[in-house]
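Thread: Newbie trying to understand structure tokens

Hi all, I'm a second-year student working on a class project, and my supervisor (Dr. K.) asked me to get a predicted structure for one chain before our next meeting. I've only ever worked with sequences, so writing a 3D structure as a token string is new to me. If someone could post the tokens and maybe explain what I'm looking at, I'd be very grateful. Here's the chain:
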Amino acid sequence: MTHHRDVQVRELSLAFNDLDFCYLPRAAGSAPSHCADFLCTVDASRFFSNGGHHIVFALDCEGGQGGYNPHCGPILRYGKNLWSAARGFIIFGDGAVMAEGWNGTAMPALAVIADTVGAGFDPVRHPVFTLRITAGYRRGAFANSMRIEIRLGESAKGALLFAGGIDGAAWGLSWRGGSKAAMGGIAAGFVPPVATGCVEELLPRSASHAALVMSRFKFRIHPPSTAP
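---
Reply by user tm_fold:
Sure, no problem. This is what the structure looks like when written as tokens:
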């Protein structure tokens, strides 16, 4: 992890097998009614234009690749294995946003998120944006829900470009006392370990020049009324 002018910055590159990700430090909470809150500024100016397919933001990451899941072998970046279970959002180059529930299978839960703003979010035209994700557990103001806001530029107070969310028991989780989050990107040329003898081949693929710059990221669990 690098720092520039006291701002956390992490550059993710798809140079190896069209996939990169990193974890944030685990956040701890003190009450089941609290919610997970993730804030991050994204510079995607070298991502979609270089073949990147979608950007990933995952909360409540658990488990790892290998064994009995579809990949059958670990997917390691920075010494850490890709999660097998999580929930969060993915962002595409055309501005589409989807909720994803990773469940250790080849059929994760996916749902299109309707934009309630109508500002026309376009990460190609406006590649620098700041997003906030708020996700509840089984109790509290955000119980069984996930929310996402995307704002123009490097500030959480920038012009609102996209806002939406999803509700339902499938999108909430039982309280665990803490959560681990991750951010990453992937392109269409990714080859899973199951196709290469359960050992990932870290070779250049379709988007070897695609990169994401993540900065100002914060992840914590707190009462819903507490500002980030």
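A couple of things are worth pointing out once you decode it. Confidence is low (pLDDT under 50) at residues 1-5. The chain is about 0% helix and 45% strand. Feel free to ask follow-ups in this thread.
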